[in-house]
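Listing 4. Sequential folding, example run.
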Amino acid sequence: MQHLNISSSSFTILNTKAIAPSVVLGLCCLVGVPGNIAVIMLIVSNYKRENFTLKLMLNLAVSDLVSLISLHLDLFNSPWLAAQPCSV
């Protein structure tokens, strides 16, 4: 049986420059997504048509949730977000 001599120095398992941003973005997603879902549920349960402030807070929570979900997808290097759709 032939032994393969593969040195571990030629393979990089973890990209050390991407660890800190990945941890920070991961924590933002872990805290932000459940928090925004809780805010959306609270606002929807107490929603009144004449309260403009609640409408603005609901809009902010939904947009923040959408941006956090897209940030979560970008964290795992999704190919459709890496294509830079605004490169005109």
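-- end of first protein; second protein begins --
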Amino acid sequence: MGLTGALATHLVASTDLPAFTAALDDTGLDDVLDKFARPTATSTLSELRTHVDSAFAPGSLTEIRTRLHERESEWAQTTLNQLDTASPLCLRLTDELLGLGIDDDLEGCLRRELHAATGLIRESDFAEGIRATLVDKTRDARWSHPGTDAVPHELLRRLVQLSPDRTPTSPP
């Protein structure tokens, strides 16, 4: 299933895929799904959905942080700690992509996200995050911007800009 929506409707174990595929040749899809689909467990995200929705309601990153500070829960504190260690560029980029995605369809959102990711790997924060997390395992990244307010708007625009025909512009 999708994290919060309907990107998938059924779960079929990877070990069952050969038999699932073979059964499709002989039986209708609904019957095959009835036979092979497994129930999914309730996710932690679905249990926290109300908290996530209210903390991450529309607004600036500063407003989101304020709402998290106002909550006295382990989840809110853990979330704040994660935001404190994240790349300010990536936080602003995520915020920008979410804002632009409101008026776009899934295909447009995925195109824009691919374009942004392609540009992001050229930024120093990408290599710095890999160094701090995977190479040295120190989690002491030194990001290129001291905070989200210091990320230049022009950089964000370049990372998310699609051409009028909704294809990525030249590599960001």
